[in-house]
Amino acid sequence: MAAALVLQQSRSWFSAARLPPLARISLSAAFVPAFFAASKPFTWAIPSLPSLLELFPPWLLAVPKKKTSHSRKAMRSANKGLKDKQNLVHCPACGSPKLAHNLCPTCYRELNVEWKRNRSPEL
Q: What is the reported pTM?
């Protein structure tokens, strides 16, 4: 029977040709080792809760006990406001205020308008 099965599977080129010889033979009760056949029937065991909790890290199960009130949220975010800029300087060319180590927006706008006016038309 096993030889006929191998012969039949060897005719199909797409799956049986790629399988090793032992994989072509169907497993029956004769090929199953004795310790598998003589073992007790399988029963499902429900794991206990402490063993399930060991699978998760403690920070994953952290949940707040009560809702955070609007007042507490406001107090926590009170120091997240906007801060005043300390690095403002006057532009040496036009005198308008600008951020230090940045281009002056007024001078840049004037230069950009001048460049666009002098640009030759591209044909």
A: 0.35
